[in-house]
Amino acid sequence: MRHILIVGIGAGNPDHMTMQAVNALNQAAVLFVPKKGESKAQLADIRRDIIGRYVTDEKIRVVEFDVPVRETRDRSYDRSVDDWHAAIAEIYESLIETHVGETEKAAFLVWGDPMLYDSTIRIVERVKGGGRVSFDFSVIPGITSLQALTAAHRIPLNLVGKPVEITTGRRLAESVPEKGRTTVIMLDGEQAFLKVEDPEARIYWGAYLGTEQEIVISGRLHDVRDEIARTRAEAGAQHGWIMDIYLMRSGADFDE
Ligand SMILES: C[S@@+](CC[C@H](N)C(=O)[O-])C[C@H]1O[C@@H](n2cnc3c(N)ncnc32)[C@H](O)[C@@H]1O
């Protein structure tokens, strides 16, 4: 039976690759590399760099494919994501059918770790459930952008014995951290941190983590938020794309 490996490749630094991920890529007959348009060409380059460095067998085939852009017009957010997943599922199905022999393994290279704000696992499940192409699959973990963020700032993720929430910029308003709690924000196109009023909150922000352009800023939110907004806008304009993640909390270890 065909076997699909969903491989976490880390969040931007080729050194994030684990031995398990390297071994998985080298077991595959085909590597599927997503491309997300010109503005994010650097991300495809990082994936190519990883293959160049770690894949030793020249017979392993590399197939690049374009990821469609999510349509948002005239539909709810959930509908928009579901339609998008359906479109990607069709592409995956065709990739597997066309490029993977009946007993071969193939790998999808997934940014960071496949469990964190990534839909490769659920889309592969969808294709498998569709039943038109039969295969089994496994997931290989990777270093996430969240780990890259906490390492860059040299901080633990949680305060001692306290909870953590991970959310998106769109939903930050529902999860502004109460004292002692930590909130991590990903996929924030709207700089949601600018709307947080807590005077005690601290922010740990990072962009392009693991890459040569890495930028990190931390401090009291009200002291550094304008600097982050300015830096973010300038870097985005300079590079043509930006990926950033941040952690906010108020309080300290052992506060009750
Ligand atoms: C679709 S999610 C993918 C997350 C990925 N699966 C992970 O494990 O980190 C993309 C979001 O992850 C964050 N991200 C991923 N890589 C990053 C990096 N190198 N630097 C900063 N943020 C990053 C950003 O919040 C970005 O909007």
Describe this structure as you would to a colleague.
GO terms for molecular function: precorrin-6A synthase (deacetylating) activity. This is Precorrin-6A synthase [deacetylating]. It catalyses: precorrin-5 + S-adenosyl-L-methionine + H2O = precorrin-6A + acetate + S-adenosyl-L-homocysteine + 2 H(+). Strands 3-2-4-1-5 form a five-stranded parallel beta sheet, with helices on both faces. Strands 6-7-10-8-9 form a five-stranded mixed beta sheet, sandwiched between helices. The protein is 33% helix and 23% strand. It contains six helices and ten strands. The model has no long low-confidence stretch (mean pLDDT 94). The protein folds into two domains: 2-140, Tetrapyrrole methylase, N-terminal domain (Cobalt-precorrin-4 Transmethylase, domain 1, 3-Layer(aba) Sandwich), CATH 3.40.1010; 145-249, 2-Layer Sandwich (Methyltransferase, Cobalt-precorrin-4 Transmethylase, Domain 2), CATH 3.30.950.10. With 256 residues, the chain is of the alpha/beta class. Bound molecules: S-adenosylmethionine. The site of S-adenosylmethionine has 21 residues, from helix 5, strand 8 and strand 10.
